[in-house]
Amino acid sequence: MGNEICNGQFLRRAAIYVIVLAISSLFLTSVLVAELELLKMKYYQDDENNIKLSFEYYSQLFKYSN
């Protein structure tokens, strides 16, 4: 172990692990953000459809009540 630290092998390996960990965490974060954006778009789309349906329902109800 002392020999590895002296010639920099340990530090090089640790730096590679840190770089790989940083890249993989960035990738996973971007995937999670993309999933959240898709969920948000779906939520807003559902909300918009519900507003349209309720508007059509109440307009039909108003039309038949008169």
UniProtKB/TrEMBL annotation:
The chain crosses the membrane at residues 14-34. It comes from the Eukaryota. Keywords: Membrane, Transmembrane, Transmembrane helix. This is Uncharacterized protein. It comes from Rhizophagus irregularis.
